[in-house]
Write a structure and sequence with these properties.
The longest helix has 23 residues. This protein has five helices and no strands. About 28% of the residues have low confidence. α2 packs across α3 and α3 packs across α5. By secondary structure, it is mostly helical. The chain folds into two domains: 28 residues; 91 residues.
Amino acid sequence: MSFECPQMLRICLTTAMVAMTLTAPLIAGAATYNTGAAGTNNNDTGNAGAQPSTNRNWTTENKYWRDNFVSRPYYKNNMDYSQYEPAYRYGTDLYAKYPNKRYDELDQKTLRSDWERMNGADLSWDRANLAARDAYEHMYRYRTSDAGSSNR
């Protein structure tokens, strides 16, 4: 494509820059905790721009929890991964937001109210809190262990 007029080139470049600025958040994604009836969530990045320095993302964490949730002490036989997944996602995203705090340092009342506002009755806070804490502490341990070099 050639441009005979420098002004036309400027307009095209400006339009392209605006389009990239507007679509970047859509590409990066935004946190979503309620995965719906199918239990799938294609959002891989968690909170846009809030990833911890460990470069962990939701795809990696989701695989870890999908493979390991049945070994957790709070796991109940009548529940499948899709029921726990929003809580794991919530804990992972909380860590991205507060990477320098321990889970117990977070305001538990706010965590509960945010969870209940986002997820309603899909998973009670009492059960979700255990999985969210697990995911948060998993990220915390990963970050503090030899820069993430452990086998996890």
